[in-house]
Amino acid sequence: MRGHISAHAVCTAIRDDIVSGALAPGSRLIEEILAARYGVSRVPVREALRTLQSEGFVTTRHHAGACVAEPTEQEAADLLDVRALLEPLGAARAAARRSPAHLKVLRGLVRLGRERARHGSPADLRQLDGWFHETLAQAAGSPSLTALLTQLRRKIEWMYAVELPARTGESWDEHGAVLDAVARGDAERARALMAAHVERSLPVYRLRRPAGTEAGEPKQPRERNPKPPVNTARARS
Asked: From the first residue on, what is the mean pLDDT of each consecutive set of 10 residues in the chain (237 residues)?
């Protein structure tokens, strides 16, 4: 029934539609229309829009109300920089706090990822990659860090198209190396390996064409200067 769907579920549905492009950047978000779209009352829609505004997916304009945000190229590039800091931190925390259940799931994902890299489809690999990083974030044992990493991955997915790299096998070997360090409890090695993994993944990200611009080649993330691998190298996931 309309009133029994939570604001959290509505928030997830709207966010998914923003990330997928079903709700385009700059488009107005009218409570009444959204309530009809998702089969709910306006109350959970209003709460969901507040949450999405705090996350940066929604903005409020004078005389227009809530709209899907239109991130700048600088904001998009900053997300990759933030990811380069948080993903290695998450891997280091996971090495110190992971549970046997986390390790079991991560090992299964690495095994499947290696198999799919040889014989699977791009969709399979993207999904497995996302599950690996999400599980690793959960293994960090910090709800706040896990929430930040999850939100960061959603926003990167929204702003960037990800091309499957030619080196999928190597990418999953890197996942396996990170997992080995996490399983041994070696936080510094897990941090360094994840940082290098993120750095190598940068070429697969292509900035999506901003709303209102002419069609053309998608833009690449800005160039970065090489950094020492342990502290500032970027990673894939």
From this structure: 73 94 94 95 95 94 90 93 96 97 97 88 83 96 93 92 74 96 98 96 81 35 39 39
HSE (side-chain half, CA atoms, 13 Å) at 38? 29
Q: What is the pLDDT of residue 4?
A: 64
**Left, alpha or beta for 26 (phi > 0: left; psi -120 to 50: alpha)?**
left
Closest CA to 144 of 93, 80, 77, 208: 93
DSSP secondary structure, 64-97, as one string: TEEEE----HHHHHHHHHHHHHHHHHHHHHHHHH
The confidence score (pLDDT) of residue 226 equals 37
Token couple for 217 = 């080649």
Contact 211, 25 (CB under 8 A): yes
Question: d(Cα 156, Cα 152) in Å, to the nearest integer?
Answer: 6
Q: 52 burial class (0-12, 13-18, 19+ CB within 10 angstroms)?
A: buried
Tokens of 173: 């070997």
Query: How many of the other CB atoms lie within 10 Å of CB of 152?
Result: 17
Q: How far is 195 from 87, CA to CA, in rounded Å?
A: 7
Do strands 205-207 and 160-162 pair parallel, antiparallel, or not at all (unpaired)?
A: antiparallel
Cite the beta strand spans of 105-185 per DSSP E: 160-162
Model confidence pTM above 0.70: yes
